[in-house]
Design brief:
This protein has 301 residues and is mostly helical. The two termini are 34 Å apart. The chain is globular, with a radius of gyration of 19 Å. It has one domain. The C terminus is likely disordered. The longest helix is centred in the first third of the chain and has 34 residues. It is 56% helix and 0% strand. The structure holds zinc ion (2 copies). The site of one zinc ion has 5 residues, from α8.
Length: 301
Amino acid sequence: MMKKNYTLYTLLLSVTFLASVTVKSGWHFELMLYLIVVYSAVFIFIFERYRPHRKNWNVKKADWKNELLHLIISTALFDGLGKACALFLVIQLQSQFFQVSDFWLAFPLLFVVVIAAVVAEFLPYWFHRISHQAKSGSPTSLFLWHVHAIHHLPSTMNWFKTNWNHPLGIFINAILKSGPLLLFGFPPAAIFLVWVIHVTMAYVSHSNIESKSSWLDYVVITPQLHRFHHSKKLIEAQNYGISITFWDWVFGTYYNQNRTVEQVGRIQKNHEYPNQNSYWGQIRFPFTKLYQPCCCKSVNK
Ligand SMILES: [Zn+2]
Ligand SMILES: [Zn+2]
């Protein structure tokens, strides 16, 4: 039987309302995107504090330094750089090789946003999925895993854990996500709404708010679904989508059960991970391991 999920519904509906008003009123997209991030963060902080999924998953005093370094350097700085770089590259390409068309203006904005959301997730889905392969003997495959391994270090999940990513991974992801949207000439309003979906769901999916199984699990990456991606059990660590489940359905990596995950954290106990307590050690980790691929076993069977 479907259980209600009022916290999640309230957050998603209020963000949808804010984003819709922004488009209709012609407000500044970048500014409103940041305001929506702040709004959703405050909302999640309140519910993580007063109605957590698990009380012992909230941030502990000893973790604050690393949490802030991940937030400020890994995410805020490199996500912005990636978007700016993608924008610069695409504008250069468009001016030389492409005509910017008004093709998308012939369709309702909602339809265009759905298409844009699916397009924007395709490359990040594969980047995430390939990053998990960690094929022994393949320096490239191992390097990608070593870049992504930071994300699977924490044994808890909350808003701040969204930011546990290597800056290189964030940078590449931003280009993979934004590049196709610009290249295919999606209108600015659609790109703004896709960014809202992407950023909101990224933080929501890692949050420690109560989230039961619901119809949303079939459409977007909910906390329920993404906790399975962070499961210690290899069989459960699927769901490679960032904000929507579409490509997981298409490529057979959708995973859900009518229960919550037992433990999150390191996927396989014999696999090498960077030091959880050293932010700079985590940043150096892929580069120190790149030339020693024989030391790591594959994450996959
Ligand atoms: Zn992952
Ligand atoms: Zn995650």
